[in-house]
Amino acid sequence: MGIKALKPQTRSTIITYAIVIVAFFAVTVLDGMGFISNSLSGQLVPICAYVSLAVSLNLVVGVSGELSLGHAGFMSVGAFTGVVAAGCLTRMGVESEILLFVAAAVIGAVAAGIIGFLVGIPVMRLRGDYLAIVTLAFGEIIKNLLNNFYIGVDDAGLHFSMTDSSSLGMTQGAILINGPKGAVGIDKISTFALGILLVLITVAVVLNLMHSRDGRAIMAVRDNRIAAESVGINVTKYRLMAFTVASALAGAAGVLYAMNYSTITPSQFDFNQSILILVYVVLGGMGNISGSIVSAAFLTVLPEVLRPINNYRMLIYAVVLILVMVVPNTKIYQRLADAVRSKLRREPKVPVAAAEGGEADE
Amino acid sequence: MSKFTDFAKQRREGTKMVPVPSVSIMPERDLGRAPALECLHLGIDFGGLKAVDDFNITVGRTEICGLIGPNGAGKTTVFNLLTKVYQPTRGTIMVDGRDTAGLDPARVNRLGVARTFQNIRLFNTLTVEENVAVGLHNQHHCGMATSILRLPHHWKSEKYYHERALELLDIFDMAGLADHEAGSLPYGAQRRLEIVRALATNPKLLLLDEPAAGMNPSETAELMENIVKIRDQFQIAIMLIEHDMNLVMNICEGICVLNFGKIIAKGTPEEIQQNDAVIEAYLGKQKEVEA
Ligand SMILES: Nc1ncnc2c1ncn2[C@@H]1O[C@H](COP(=O)(O)OP(=O)(O)OP(=O)(O)O)[C@@H](O)[C@H]1O
Ligand SMILES: [Mg+2]
Questions:
Q1: How far apart are CA B46 and CA B115, in angstroms?
Q2: Touching check for A205 and chain B: CB below 8 Å?
Q3: Which of A221, A352, B261, B288 is a plausible cystine mate for B74, CB 3.0–4.6 Å?
């Protein structure tokens, strides 16, 4: 009763937050009761990371309408910057894990945001397929650059090299990033609660942005670029804004992801990773934030759940993917969905006054 | 309708059009102020085709000016030049006394030119209210961080957009449609919404490309009334392209006739109706059809 009376926008916002919060409590309770297997509970943090990544990529692909194939690149910028930041802060004597995590996430987000902005300046001059291909290229460039980064920290401060770890010239201290071997000896400070917190922040940033002056401008550019220009909107600025904010959020998610493992390598953040995130977005629906959350969580859990039938695991995963794409387009499903929807919602009716006459088309 | 057209006629008869130094005529009441629009030798080529050539016009600050001509004459192209969707090959466009050379469409809008499109271009997935709110984009500012953090200024801004959008929608009695998706509106309502969205940008010059296209006679009559009302209320210049001669002859004070990209006549509705070149451009074609 109550929820039906709200505006559609407010209602979907409430539902989106509710999904995350209910999932958090459900998982916590089930975990306490011992219903969650070890392998699944190991996936809780990655699930949160992928949900954040899907939601932030949806800001680019769904809300701003640009196909980006390099999201994993910004994720890795955040991940590696976060690892370096956490390593330095640990050396400086910061002990609180929460403080470490928050600082690393903020620094990772800022770094990924800056890189996203710089990459966005040339990329946002392009459109459609060209833009997609160039984002793909930038994702690969970032990965290959990181493959050549050697960073260490000791009492004298940070050391950086692009040749090998020995040229860092360190006798004591720790090597934080070791070229293609990636970051080793990371403190595993990510927790499920921190993951959920990051998901909530990501969702809040994206939804608050969508339902504001700037968000409307972003969606206006997506719906009709020429019309948006005609009402005085700086098209490049708003495409760049969506891209930069999404990159920063991907950076924070990268930190969450990295801090869940003791080792991460640049090659983990490749094109396949970007496509995986894109699959979550497409499956959840363009511009549909709660859809991204559900599909990212579902598709991350699925391979874990299927582990007992290991031989057929990826086969079933692929079949499910195809079914989820095909079934919503079948007539039976659409009838069912319409029936459910009309039960749940007050269908907006166009008043008679507006509908009368003038239906001719050009 | 007739009551209205009489009113429009009286108003027009009360308007005295006078020659101005450059190349055009202008309502007497607008003299002594920079014209809303002044074009000098404006032209654009598409390959070998001179789609518009030597286009000169002056539009007074509160004038309703008609741009007519047969299909393919270059009328829409003129609007695309004025709004910089196309960069002119030659010539000057002055808006409110300021040269628009080198500006992009968004900047030209901020200078005071708003438009509607012949083939409707709404933000289809946004609601009616959001469409108008996008039009209000530059009338009120609210930064990204303020919105993301939901600071008090964000809520104040949203209140402004909401209230102002409803006010503007009320011009066409469309406030009741505020929450509907723009793409789902009937055709006539979409055309009206485009006008409201353009008005929201607070223009000095409003360009309407075939505003009555696809409307039935009663809708057209209402539209005529509303165009005059908008001019009176907002004190802006309106330039409109229209094939409905009843509408053009009734509400336009000055008319400019285009054929094959060139101006073939300019004047008051009476002058245009009696102009030989215009009669030939329009009726000449009709004779061919009859033959
Ligand atoms: N982008 C373009 N490239 C090439 N030719 C163009 C372009 N835009 C318009 N034209 C040509 O310019 C001429 C004028 O077109 P325009 O659309 O301005 O006509 P119009 O007067 O608006 O006609 P209508 O009454 O049918 O809307 C036409 O011959 C058209 O084919
Ligand atoms: Mg046209």
A1: 22
A2: yes
A3: B261
Q: 3-state DSSP call for residue A19?
A: helix
Do A190 and A101 contact (CB within 8 A), yes or no? yes
Q: In chain A, what are the domains?
A: 7-311 (1.10.3470)
Q: Distance of CA B224 to CAs B2, B126, B198, Å?
A: 12, 27, 17
The 10s digit of each residue's pLDDT in A290-331 is 999 999 999 888 888 777 777 777 787 788 778 877 777 788
Pair A194, A258: CB distance under 8 Å: no
Three-state DSSP at B181 gives: strand
pLDDT interval class at A362 (50, 70, 90): very low
Cα four-point dihedral sign B13, B18, B19, B23: negative
Q: What are residue A168's phi and psi, to 5 degrees? A: -70, -20
Where b means 16+ CB within 10 Å and e means fewer, A282-321 reads bbbbebbbbbbbbbbbbbbeeebebeeeeeebeeeeeeee
Cβ < 6 A, ligand 1 pocket? B 46, 51, 69, 71-77, 118
Same domain for B63 and B106, yes or no, is yes
Average pLDDT over residues A2-12: 74
The whole-chain average pLDDT of chain A stands at 87
Which sign, positive or negative, has the C-alpha torsion B260, B261, B264, B269? positive
Residues B5, B104: one domain?
A: yes
Q: For the whole prediction, is pTM greater than 0.80?
A: yes
Q: What are phi and psi of B286, to 5 degrees?
A: -60, -40
Whether residue B17 is found in the same domain as residue B48: yes
Pairing of strands B113-115, B205-209: parallel
Nearest by Cα to B201 from B127, B268, B146, B135: B135
Q: What is the number of structural domains in chain B?
A: 2
Residue to mutate, B42, B76, B81, ligand 1, most ligand atoms under 8 Å from C-beta: B76
Q: CB distance from A33 to chain B under 8 Å?
A: no
In which domain, by residue range, is B125 found? 113-202
Q: Nearest residue on chain A to B160, judged by CA atoms?
A: A213
Contact check, Cβ <8 Å, B186/A234: no
- What pLDDT digit, counting tens, does each position of A140-155 carry? 999 999 999 999 888 7
Residue count (chain B) = 291
What's the average model confidence in pLDDT over B27-53?
Answer: 90
